[in-house]
Amino acid sequence: MSEILEPFDSGLKTGNITILFNIYRHERISHQNRIRYENFLKNNYPKEYENFLEFKVKVKNKTPNIKELIFQWLDGKRDIPDLELFLV
Q: Which of 34, 39, 64, 77 is in the most buried spot, having the most CB atoms within 10 Å?
């Protein structure tokens, strides 16, 4: 079973959080890196990627500045964002 499909407590998929963090991590490197990563997901895990997109919309509606929080964490300026931000 792929890590993308691994279940997490309360039915939350670790894959959704992992994908979100990885997308922003790749974006920090370059926009092209992000596009390559997203294309990889679309081509290899289309169903999971569609589920992720729904998750991402819900997270962004709940926490509009989630990207900024993750970037601050990636830069070492804050602790990892609280898991509750991702429970939608």
A: 34
Asked whether 59 and 20 are in contact (CB, 8 A), the reply is: yes
- Could you give the dihedral angle defined by the CA atoms of residues 78, 36, 43 and 50, in that order, rounded to the nearest 10 degrees? 40
The answer to whether the beta carbons of residues 51 and 13 sit under 8 Å apart is yes
Q: How many CB atoms lie within 10 A of CB 12?
A: 15
Q: Categorize the per-residue pLDDT at 5 as very low, low, confident or very high, splitting at 50, 70 and 90.
A: very low
H runs (alpha helix) in the chain: 14-29, 31-44, 46-62, 66-74
Phi, psi (degrees; rounded to nearest 5) at 8? -125, 170
Give the residues across from 46 on adjacent strands.
none
pTM recorded for the entire structure = 0.71
